[in-house]
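Field notebook, page 331. I keep forgetting to write these up properly, so this time I am using the form the group agreed on. The chain and the ligand, flavin-adenine dinucleotide, are recorded exactly as supplied. Prediction of the bound pose follows.
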Amino acid sequence: MHPFVLTRADDSASAIAAHSQDVQLAFIAGGTDLVALMKDGMELPERLLDINGLPGTERIEELPDGGLRIGALARMSDVAADGRVRARFPVIAEALLFSASGQLRNMATMGGNIMQRTRCAYFRDGDALPCNKREPGSGCSALHGLNRNHAIFGWSASCVATHPSDVAVAFAALDANVIVRGRVGERPIPFAEFYRPPSSTPERDNVLGRGDLIVAIEVPARPEGRASHYLKVRDRQSYEFALVSVAAAVETDGERLRSVRLAMGGVAHKPWRLLAAERALRGILLGNTNGLRSAIAQSFSEARPLTHNGFKVELSQRAALRALLTAGARA
Ligand SMILES: Cc1cc2nc3c(=O)[nH]c(=O)nc-3n(C[C@H](O)[C@H](O)[C@H](O)COP(=O)(O)OP(=O)(O)OC[C@H]3O[C@@H](n4cnc5c(N)ncnc54)[C@H](O)[C@@H]3O)c2cc1C
Ligand code: SF4
């Protein structure tokens, strides 16, 4: 394993200063992704700064509007078990419980989860095959290679990878904000703007820069929050990443959909909102399955499947319908 020096941060200001000044320094939280990337040679920082001791960053706190501020260092298992999360945003708790394993969730943090890197095998295997995310300019082996698990939306010829986080899909559906503290203070980044499309620079997954530390994720109160559901479709029922997944949240008048939030995982470089479907679904009776199905289809005219993942187009629409019906039954 690549040698490194480990130190511990006591306060966020010195952690941010150290990260801004040293390109060879990486934050480490639970270490469940970073250490794997280091072992396989994808990331080789010389210095690791342990941020687990930063005061207050493990808490889940109330926002004045009834939403929640979830500390970046909160463990996935603690967030999934929190009564307020389960009651107000079941979609978040479910997305977490469908992630990884119990042991990993006890160790892994919320900030680390949304920062985890793609599971594209060409990126992870670290062999000699080209990968623009691992080695910019080398090419994309998945574009014409094995791409069953890859994107159907928003990809570029430089990269067709998907983002693997489950809970990021729930956060995207709820229009949560990533709260980032940096050299010039704290700023909220809407989830829709946090991840970058791959374009010609897929080595950059998100908009964070040097000295940016995620301190929390804020989920504003949402009328759709309580009637929400996360559905994950995968090759085996546990300990597996999503082939496709759906976060659905709805508000109804008892029969008709008043408003709908739908985001998908496993289909793009970032959680993918089905905005056209959300608009088309408003006003449709929950019992009108054909109406729901054709409204969902409106978001799939822009799908661009690859050689091996055409099945995701149909699978995604069926999963979206099922997630919507389950969320609707909770309204
Ligand atoms: C076998 C296995 C199965 C898995 N299955 C799933 C799954 O089904 N669904 C799913 O969603 N995930 C899954 N995961 C991924 C897992 O959830 C992540 O590894 C974990 O959430 C990362 O959190 P961490 O605290 O360990 O991050 P670390 O490994 O410590 O850090 C990851 C990255 O985030 C950066 N970072 C960490 N915290 C901050 C911060 N506060 N501010 C800025 N940067 C930060 C680090 O520098 C690093 O680049 C799986 C992982 C494994 C190993
Ligand atoms: S899809 Fe992205 S991560 Fe996978 S090989 Fe292509 S460039 Fe690399």
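OBSERVATIONS:
- Residues 118, 120, 122-123, 131-133, 140-142, 159-161, 202 surround iron/sulfur cluster (ligand 2) (CB under 6 Å).
- The CA atoms of residues 177 and 190 lie 4 Å apart.
FOLLOW-UP: compare against the apo run.
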